[in-house]
Amino acid sequence: MPFGLTADVLLGRILVIFLGIPIHEWAHGWVAHLLGDETPELQGRLSLNPFVHLDPVGTLSILLTGFGWGRAARVNPYRMTRVHNPRTGMALSALAGPVSNIIQAMILAIPFRLGLLTLLESNMAYRLAQVLFAAIAVNIGLAAFNLLPIPPLDGSRVLVGVAPRRIGDVIESLEPYAIYILLFVLFLLPRLGLDLVGLLVRPLQEFLFRILLF
Hints:
mainly alpha, globular, 0% strand
């Protein structure tokens, strides 16, 4: 196994692969469906079957690094007829994914918050704590990363929904170049000495960890 990757950490990451990612992508589709968009249902994405939502490369990345992604759920904000503004519908659908990861992290943190691990034999408690902590860490990381206001991440779509129309127009105009923007931010900027993702994600991760575990 790679350095630092224990069986317990691996098990925690597998838990996210089979729960965290599917629930994240399902949440996008479920909210869009509630707002009137039939696209997720037609594409078979209103399911918690992990294999409907997993991306092979993103899954392997989660196993090896604790960071990854699922297969993006497609929604159509112009079919969300239960809201007056398609951008509002898109923002709500986008927000649902990261929120689902935060909720999962909250549930996984319950044994820590209630001291339930102290009821177990010490070795078992330690190993279970490692599994839960790994799963919490990945869920929080997914939520924090996806909330970044960078196309094509969920945070950019939330920002479009709440920003003044002119700013929303500018952000939406970047969508055709979204993958290039993301690759630039993730890989090129750090080589130039600016880890923008780390600067933005770490404070939110630390904040969520403090709330959940301390």
